[in-house]
Specification:
The chain is mainly β. The protein has four helices and 28 strands. It starts with 5 loop residues before the first helix and ends with a strand. The protein is globular and about 55 Å long. The longest helix is centred in the N-terminal third of the chain and has 11 residues. Helix content is 7%, strand content 40%.
Length: 382
Protein backbone atom coordinates (compact mmCIF):
# COMPACT_ATOMS: atom_id res chain seq x y z
CA UNK A 1 0.00 0.00 0.00
CA UNK A 2 1.27 3.51 -0.75
CA UNK A 3 1.36 6.08 2.02
CA UNK A 4 -0.29 9.22 0.73
CA UNK A 5 -1.34 11.15 3.79
CA UNK A 6 0.84 12.76 6.43
CA UNK A 7 -1.43 11.83 9.38
CA UNK A 8 -0.37 8.21 8.86
CA UNK A 9 3.25 9.28 9.22
CA UNK A 10 2.41 10.60 12.66
CA UNK A 11 1.05 7.21 13.74
CA UNK A 12 4.24 5.57 12.52
CA UNK A 13 6.34 8.09 14.42
CA UNK A 14 4.39 7.42 17.60
CA UNK A 15 5.41 3.77 17.52
CA UNK A 16 8.80 3.80 15.90
CA UNK A 17 10.50 7.15 16.54
CA UNK A 18 14.01 7.00 17.93
CA UNK A 19 14.79 10.20 19.86
CA UNK A 20 17.95 12.22 20.28
CA UNK A 21 19.36 12.08 23.77
CA UNK A 22 18.57 15.77 24.32
CA UNK A 23 16.46 16.83 27.27
CA UNK A 24 15.50 20.30 28.34
CA UNK A 25 12.60 21.27 30.57
CA UNK A 26 11.00 24.53 29.40
CA UNK A 27 8.23 26.15 31.40
CA UNK A 28 5.93 28.56 29.56
CA UNK A 29 4.20 31.81 30.37
CA UNK A 30 1.03 32.62 28.43
CA UNK A 31 0.42 36.14 27.19
CA UNK A 32 -3.34 36.64 26.75
CA UNK A 33 -4.61 37.67 23.33
CA UNK A 34 -7.96 38.04 21.65
CA UNK A 35 -9.27 34.79 20.21
CA UNK A 36 -10.55 36.06 16.87
CA UNK A 37 -9.98 39.01 14.61
CA UNK A 38 -12.27 40.03 11.76
CA UNK A 39 -10.24 40.58 8.59
CA UNK A 40 -11.79 41.12 5.13
CA UNK A 41 -10.97 38.24 2.79
CA UNK A 42 -8.93 39.00 -0.31
CA UNK A 43 -9.13 35.46 -1.72
CA UNK A 44 -12.24 34.31 -3.60
CA UNK A 45 -13.52 31.15 -1.86
CA UNK A 46 -14.18 29.59 -5.27
CA UNK A 47 -10.43 29.62 -5.92
CA UNK A 48 -9.81 27.30 -2.99
CA UNK A 49 -10.52 23.66 -2.13
CA UNK A 50 -13.88 23.14 -0.47
CA UNK A 51 -12.49 22.96 3.07
CA UNK A 52 -10.54 26.19 2.86
CA UNK A 53 -13.34 27.94 1.00
CA UNK A 54 -15.72 27.09 3.83
CA UNK A 55 -13.20 28.17 6.45
CA UNK A 56 -12.48 31.45 4.68
CA UNK A 57 -16.12 32.31 4.01
CA UNK A 58 -16.41 33.35 7.68
CA UNK A 59 -13.69 36.00 7.16
CA UNK A 60 -12.43 35.14 10.64
CA UNK A 61 -8.72 34.68 11.18
CA UNK A 62 -7.97 33.06 14.57
CA UNK A 63 -5.46 34.90 16.75
CA UNK A 64 -3.66 32.58 19.16
CA UNK A 65 -2.07 33.40 22.52
CA UNK A 66 1.68 33.90 22.39
CA UNK A 67 3.94 31.76 24.54
CA UNK A 68 7.21 32.82 26.11
CA UNK A 69 9.86 30.19 26.80
CA UNK A 70 13.12 30.68 28.71
CA UNK A 71 16.01 31.83 26.52
CA UNK A 72 18.31 29.04 27.71
CA UNK A 73 20.53 29.63 24.68
CA UNK A 74 21.31 33.25 25.61
CA UNK A 75 25.06 32.67 25.76
CA UNK A 76 25.05 31.96 22.02
CA UNK A 77 23.90 35.55 21.25
CA UNK A 78 21.48 34.38 18.58
CA UNK A 79 19.28 36.91 16.81
CA UNK A 80 16.39 36.88 14.38
CA UNK A 81 13.47 34.47 14.27
CA UNK A 82 12.89 30.84 13.36
CA UNK A 83 9.84 29.85 11.33
CA UNK A 84 8.96 26.18 11.79
CA UNK A 85 6.15 23.62 11.92
CA UNK A 86 4.87 21.79 14.99
CA UNK A 87 1.93 19.66 16.09
CA UNK A 88 -0.45 20.14 19.03
CA UNK A 89 -3.09 17.77 20.34
CA UNK A 90 -6.68 18.55 21.21
CA UNK A 91 -8.49 15.40 22.25
CA UNK A 92 -8.32 13.04 19.27
CA UNK A 93 -7.27 15.83 16.90
CA UNK A 94 -3.76 16.61 15.67
CA UNK A 95 -3.38 20.25 14.65
CA UNK A 96 -0.39 21.43 12.63
CA UNK A 97 0.95 24.92 13.35
CA UNK A 98 3.30 27.27 11.58
CA UNK A 99 5.14 29.07 14.38
CA UNK A 100 7.71 31.79 14.91
CA UNK A 101 10.33 31.79 17.68
CA UNK A 102 11.97 35.12 18.53
CA UNK A 103 15.52 34.09 19.43
CA UNK A 104 16.12 37.21 21.53
CA UNK A 105 12.97 37.20 23.66
CA UNK A 106 11.82 33.56 23.55
CA UNK A 107 8.35 34.61 22.33
CA UNK A 108 6.61 31.88 20.31
CA UNK A 109 3.84 33.08 17.97
CA UNK A 110 1.46 30.89 15.98
CA UNK A 111 1.21 32.28 12.43
CA UNK A 112 -1.31 29.74 11.14
CA UNK A 113 -3.01 26.57 12.35
CA UNK A 114 -4.34 24.06 9.83
CA UNK A 115 -7.91 22.89 10.42
CA UNK A 116 -8.51 19.49 12.02
CA UNK A 117 -7.31 16.83 9.59
CA UNK A 118 -5.18 19.22 7.55
CA UNK A 119 -1.43 18.68 7.33
CA UNK A 120 1.55 20.94 6.62
CA UNK A 121 4.93 19.28 6.10
CA UNK A 122 7.07 22.14 4.75
CA UNK A 123 7.24 25.93 4.87
CA UNK A 124 9.50 28.19 2.79
CA UNK A 125 9.96 31.88 3.61
CA UNK A 126 10.37 34.44 0.83
CA UNK A 127 13.69 36.34 0.67
CA UNK A 128 11.98 39.51 1.95
CA UNK A 129 10.40 37.53 4.83
CA UNK A 130 6.90 38.69 3.84
CA UNK A 131 5.44 35.59 2.19
CA UNK A 132 5.24 31.87 2.92
CA UNK A 133 4.92 28.94 0.55
CA UNK A 134 3.53 25.91 2.37
CA UNK A 135 3.11 22.29 1.37
CA UNK A 136 -0.39 21.66 2.66
CA UNK A 137 -2.85 18.76 2.47
CA UNK A 138 -6.45 19.74 3.16
CA UNK A 139 -8.45 17.50 5.54
CA UNK A 140 -9.45 14.04 4.34
CA UNK A 141 -13.02 14.82 5.36
CA UNK A 142 -13.52 17.15 2.37
CA UNK A 143 -13.73 16.33 -1.32
CA UNK A 144 -10.24 15.97 -2.77
CA UNK A 145 -8.63 16.27 0.67
CA UNK A 146 -5.39 14.64 1.77
CA UNK A 147 -3.41 15.69 -1.31
CA UNK A 148 -0.41 17.95 -0.80
CA UNK A 149 -0.36 21.13 -2.88
CA UNK A 150 1.56 24.40 -2.63
CA UNK A 151 -0.16 27.40 -1.06
CA UNK A 152 0.98 30.95 -0.44
CA UNK A 153 0.08 33.17 2.49
CA UNK A 154 1.43 36.33 4.15
CA UNK A 155 3.99 35.90 6.90
CA UNK A 156 1.79 37.76 9.37
CA UNK A 157 -1.02 35.23 8.93
CA UNK A 158 -3.50 37.97 8.00
CA UNK A 159 -4.96 35.93 5.11
CA UNK A 160 -5.84 32.30 4.62
CA UNK A 161 -3.61 30.14 2.39
CA UNK A 162 -4.26 30.43 -1.35
CA UNK A 163 -3.28 27.86 -3.98
CA UNK A 164 -0.06 28.84 -5.73
CA UNK A 165 -1.22 26.86 -8.77
CA UNK A 166 -3.86 24.22 -9.41
CA UNK A 167 -2.50 20.64 -9.34
CA UNK A 168 -2.49 18.97 -12.75
CA UNK A 169 -4.57 16.03 -11.49
CA UNK A 170 -5.86 14.51 -8.24
CA UNK A 171 -2.83 12.22 -8.28
CA UNK A 172 -0.22 15.00 -8.32
CA UNK A 173 1.24 16.14 -5.01
CA UNK A 174 3.82 18.82 -4.22
CA UNK A 175 6.27 19.40 -1.38
CA UNK A 176 9.77 20.63 -0.44
CA UNK A 177 9.27 24.25 -1.63
CA UNK A 178 12.37 26.41 -1.98
CA UNK A 179 12.59 30.09 -2.99
CA UNK A 180 15.26 31.40 -5.29
CA UNK A 181 17.26 34.13 -3.47
CA UNK A 182 15.84 36.83 -5.77
CA UNK A 183 12.26 35.71 -5.04
CA UNK A 184 11.50 35.17 -8.73
CA UNK A 185 11.06 31.38 -8.59
CA UNK A 186 9.72 28.71 -6.28
CA UNK A 187 11.37 25.31 -6.69
CA UNK A 188 9.58 22.22 -5.46
CA UNK A 189 9.33 18.43 -5.60
CA UNK A 190 6.42 16.76 -7.40
CA UNK A 191 5.30 13.18 -6.86
CA UNK A 192 2.55 11.19 -8.52
CA UNK A 193 0.79 8.90 -6.07
CA UNK A 194 0.20 6.52 -9.01
CA UNK A 195 3.87 5.93 -9.74
CA UNK A 196 5.69 7.14 -6.58
CA UNK A 197 8.20 8.83 -8.91
CA UNK A 198 9.73 12.13 -7.77
CA UNK A 199 10.78 15.03 -9.99
CA UNK A 200 11.83 18.66 -9.50
CA UNK A 201 10.00 21.65 -10.98
CA UNK A 202 10.00 25.40 -10.58
CA UNK A 203 7.40 28.11 -11.16
CA UNK A 204 7.86 31.88 -11.55
CA UNK A 205 6.46 33.78 -8.56
CA UNK A 206 3.73 34.96 -8.16
CA UNK A 207 2.51 33.24 -11.32
CA UNK A 208 3.85 31.79 -14.52
CA UNK A 209 4.37 28.62 -16.49
CA UNK A 210 5.56 25.58 -14.57
CA UNK A 211 8.92 24.20 -15.72
CA UNK A 212 10.09 20.64 -15.13
CA UNK A 213 13.79 20.54 -14.29
CA UNK A 214 14.87 17.03 -13.29
CA UNK A 215 13.42 13.52 -13.37
CA UNK A 216 13.79 11.05 -10.49
CA UNK A 217 14.88 13.86 -8.18
CA UNK A 218 13.90 15.59 -4.94
CA UNK A 219 15.12 18.01 -2.23
CA UNK A 220 16.01 21.09 -4.35
CA UNK A 221 18.10 23.74 -2.54
CA UNK A 222 19.46 26.89 -4.18
CA UNK A 223 22.87 28.45 -3.48
CA UNK A 224 22.97 31.84 -1.77
CA UNK A 225 23.99 33.58 -5.00
CA UNK A 226 21.14 31.91 -6.86
CA UNK A 227 23.49 30.43 -9.45
CA UNK A 228 23.41 26.77 -8.48
CA UNK A 229 21.08 24.02 -7.34
CA UNK A 230 21.84 20.94 -5.28
CA UNK A 231 19.41 18.07 -5.21
CA UNK A 232 19.08 14.32 -4.69
CA UNK A 233 18.86 12.14 -7.79
CA UNK A 234 17.24 8.79 -7.23
CA UNK A 235 18.31 5.71 -9.19
CA UNK A 236 14.89 4.24 -9.93
CA UNK A 237 16.41 0.81 -10.53
CA UNK A 238 18.45 0.45 -7.35
CA UNK A 239 16.88 3.07 -5.10
CA UNK A 240 20.37 4.48 -4.38
CA UNK A 241 20.49 8.26 -3.87
CA UNK A 242 23.14 10.49 -5.40
CA UNK A 243 23.95 14.14 -4.79
CA UNK A 244 23.72 16.31 -7.89
CA UNK A 245 24.98 19.83 -8.52
CA UNK A 246 23.70 21.96 -11.40
CA UNK A 247 23.10 25.49 -12.56
CA UNK A 248 19.85 27.02 -11.30
CA UNK A 249 18.06 25.89 -14.47
CA UNK A 250 19.58 22.38 -14.03
CA UNK A 251 21.93 22.77 -16.97
CA UNK A 252 25.40 21.27 -16.49
CA UNK A 253 24.01 18.78 -13.94
CA UNK A 254 26.62 16.39 -12.56
CA UNK A 255 27.07 13.92 -9.75
CA UNK A 256 28.94 14.85 -6.57
CA UNK A 257 30.65 11.51 -6.09
CA UNK A 258 30.67 10.12 -2.55
CA UNK A 259 33.55 7.72 -1.98
CA UNK A 260 34.86 5.51 0.79
CA UNK A 261 33.27 2.95 3.12
CA UNK A 262 30.98 5.51 4.78
CA UNK A 263 29.33 6.69 1.53
CA UNK A 264 25.56 6.57 2.22
CA UNK A 265 22.95 5.13 -0.13
CA UNK A 266 20.15 7.23 1.37
CA UNK A 267 20.45 11.04 1.25
CA UNK A 268 18.01 13.71 2.41
CA UNK A 269 17.80 17.49 2.87
CA UNK A 270 21.05 18.71 1.21
CA UNK A 271 22.09 22.35 1.51
CA UNK A 272 25.08 24.48 0.59
CA UNK A 273 27.69 25.24 3.24
CA UNK A 274 28.23 28.84 4.37
CA UNK A 275 31.12 29.35 1.91
CA UNK A 276 29.33 27.47 -0.87
CA UNK A 277 32.23 25.03 -1.27
CA UNK A 278 30.61 21.99 0.35
CA UNK A 279 27.26 20.27 0.64
CA UNK A 280 25.79 19.42 4.03
CA UNK A 281 23.22 16.62 3.97
CA UNK A 282 21.31 14.17 6.13
CA UNK A 283 22.00 10.43 5.90
CA UNK A 284 21.97 7.31 8.10
CA UNK A 285 25.17 5.94 9.55
CA UNK A 286 26.72 2.93 7.86
CA UNK A 287 24.78 -0.08 9.06
CA UNK A 288 21.65 1.99 9.73
CA UNK A 289 20.35 2.00 6.17
CA UNK A 290 17.48 -0.18 7.28
CA UNK A 291 15.18 -0.09 10.28
CA UNK A 292 13.13 -2.72 12.15
CA UNK A 293 10.67 -4.55 9.95
CA UNK A 294 7.57 -3.31 11.75
CA UNK A 295 8.50 0.25 10.83
CA UNK A 296 8.35 -0.48 7.10
CA UNK A 297 5.44 -2.89 7.27
CA UNK A 298 2.74 -1.92 4.78
CA UNK A 299 4.59 1.17 3.57
CA UNK A 300 5.79 2.13 0.12
CA UNK A 301 9.56 1.77 0.55
CA UNK A 302 10.46 4.62 -1.83
CA UNK A 303 8.24 7.03 0.09
CA UNK A 304 9.87 6.02 3.38
CA UNK A 305 13.42 6.41 2.16
CA UNK A 306 12.87 9.84 0.64
CA UNK A 307 11.33 11.64 3.62
CA UNK A 308 13.92 11.45 6.40
CA UNK A 309 12.16 8.43 7.90
CA UNK A 310 15.33 6.67 9.05
CA UNK A 311 17.43 7.82 12.04
CA UNK A 312 20.12 9.98 10.47
CA UNK A 313 22.96 12.42 11.06
CA UNK A 314 24.51 15.41 9.33
CA UNK A 315 27.38 14.89 6.90
CA UNK A 316 29.40 17.12 4.58
CA UNK A 317 31.30 16.64 1.32
CA UNK A 318 33.21 19.08 -0.92
CA UNK A 319 31.56 20.14 -4.19
CA UNK A 320 34.27 18.19 -5.99
CA UNK A 321 33.18 15.04 -4.19
CA UNK A 322 35.12 12.68 -1.96
CA UNK A 323 34.67 10.79 1.27
CA UNK A 324 31.85 12.34 3.34
CA UNK A 325 32.60 13.64 6.82
CA UNK A 326 30.11 12.82 9.59
CA UNK A 327 29.33 15.99 11.56
CA UNK A 328 26.93 14.71 14.24
CA UNK A 329 26.00 11.57 16.12
CA UNK A 330 22.35 12.20 17.03
CA UNK A 331 20.40 9.52 15.07
CA UNK A 332 17.40 11.81 14.57
CA UNK A 333 14.43 11.63 12.22
CA UNK A 334 13.16 14.21 9.71
CA UNK A 335 16.29 16.39 9.68
CA UNK A 336 16.19 19.73 7.86
CA UNK A 337 18.64 22.61 8.25
CA UNK A 338 18.93 26.35 7.63
CA UNK A 339 21.85 28.72 8.25
CA UNK A 340 21.75 31.75 10.52
CA UNK A 341 22.18 35.12 8.83
CA UNK A 342 25.76 35.43 10.09
CA UNK A 343 26.52 31.82 9.01
CA UNK A 344 27.82 30.95 12.49
CA UNK A 345 25.03 28.50 13.31
CA UNK A 346 22.65 26.08 11.65
CA UNK A 347 19.07 25.76 12.87
CA UNK A 348 17.99 22.12 12.75
CA UNK A 349 14.46 20.76 12.56
CA UNK A 350 14.01 17.16 13.68
CA UNK A 351 11.09 15.06 14.83
CA UNK A 352 12.49 15.56 18.34
CA UNK A 353 12.54 19.36 18.31
CA UNK A 354 14.41 22.43 17.11
CA UNK A 355 18.07 22.85 17.95
CA UNK A 356 21.14 24.72 16.72
CA UNK A 357 24.71 23.70 16.10
CA UNK A 358 27.82 25.22 14.62
CA UNK A 359 28.57 24.37 10.97
CA UNK A 360 31.08 21.71 12.03
CA UNK A 361 28.38 19.88 14.03
CA UNK A 362 29.55 20.94 17.49
CA UNK A 363 27.73 22.98 20.13
CA UNK A 364 24.40 21.18 19.78
CA UNK A 365 21.84 23.22 21.75
CA UNK A 366 18.10 22.63 22.19
CA UNK A 367 15.74 25.54 21.49
CA UNK A 368 12.33 23.80 21.28
CA UNK A 369 12.18 20.34 22.84
CA UNK A 370 8.89 19.16 21.32
CA UNK A 371 7.40 19.66 17.86
CA UNK A 372 5.05 16.67 18.03
CA UNK A 373 7.15 14.03 16.25
CA UNK A 374 6.31 15.21 12.72
CA UNK A 375 8.12 16.01 9.49
CA UNK A 376 8.79 19.70 9.03
CA UNK A 377 11.15 22.52 8.17
CA UNK A 378 12.82 25.51 9.79
CA UNK A 379 13.82 28.88 8.30
CA UNK A 380 16.00 31.56 9.91
CA UNK A 381 14.91 35.13 9.20
CA UNK A 382 15.96 38.59 10.50
Amino acid sequence: MKVQFAPLWFLIFSVAVSSCSIDLSQSSAITPASQVEIIPSAIPPTALPEGLATQQSTNIIPVFPTTTIPVTWGALNLSGKLIYTSAVFQGQSILINIQSLDLTTGVVTTIYQAPDGGWIDAVAVSPDSKQLIISYATPLSISGGGKKALYRMPMDGSEFPQLLFTPASPHDQYSQPEWSPDGKYVYFTHISDLTAIFDIWRVPYPNGKLEKLADNASWPRVSEDGAHLVYVWIDSGTGVDRLYLANADVSDAHNISLTGPSAPKIIDAPMFSADGQSIIFSAPNLGQSSVPGFFLMGLDIKRVLKNGSIPSDWWSVPLAGGEPNQLTNIHALALFGNFSLDKKHIAIFSADGIFVMTPDGSGLTVLIDDVGQIFGTVSWIP
